[in-house]
Amino acid sequence: MKIIYCSNTGFTKQYAIMLANKLGIESIDVKDIKKYDIKDEEIIFLGWIFAGIIMGLNKVRKYKLKCVISVGILKLTDEYKNELIKSNNIERDKSFFYIQGGIDYKELKGIKKILLKAVASNIIKENKNENEGIINILKNGGSLVKEENLNDIIEYINKNNA
Fold first, then answer.
1. What pLDDT tens digit does each residue of the chain (162 aa) get?
2. DSSP per-residue string spanning 86-153
3. Residues 6+ apart with CB under 8 A from 75
4. In order of start, what are the domains of the chain with their CATH numbers?
């Protein structure tokens, strides 16, 4: 089993490394996937969310996906979860997880930075039931990455790895 991840500003990579350390397996940046023979291995995939799309997911669909883990900033609701599953064509029998990451405006470039700032501004205006901490991260950047956010994922993998 391997962890494949797609990270833009480092939060998804942090989770991939934490998860790899907890499970005692290797984590690989999706950019390096061709360097590995993983066609017969189960894959745990982590990808950051941009405009509702889990980045990098299409590059690993041909492999044996054990689960898909999306990393975003908003609080997960059933509506948002269903939207992510539908817009990313995730099969209902695949295990899907969502964990909160962060925003680093200094690392974002070009259109991604412009779009995120616009989306963040709209969310702040609408205050979509987000707490003050998330509002602050949307305005200024910050991180919600915590090892404990991986607990359900680790439990699932350990339970389904027998």
1. 999 999 999 999 999 999 999 999 999 999 999 998 888 999 999 999 988 899 999 999 999 999 999 999 888 888 888 899 999 999 765 689 999 999 888 887 787 777 777 777 777 677 655 566 777 888 888 899 999 999 999 999 998 875
2. HHTT--TTSEEEEEE-EE-TTT--HHHHHHHHHHHHHHHHHT-S--HHHHHHHHH-EE---GGGGHHH
3. 100, 129, 130, 131, 134
4. 2-103+143-159 (3.40.50.360)
Helices H, strands E: what count in the chain?
A: 6, 8
Query: Given the structure tokens 């799309």, which residue do they identify?
Result: 53
DSSP state letters, 147-161? GGGGHHHHHHHHHT-
- The three-class DSSP label of residue 63 is coil
**What is the total residue count of the chain?**
162
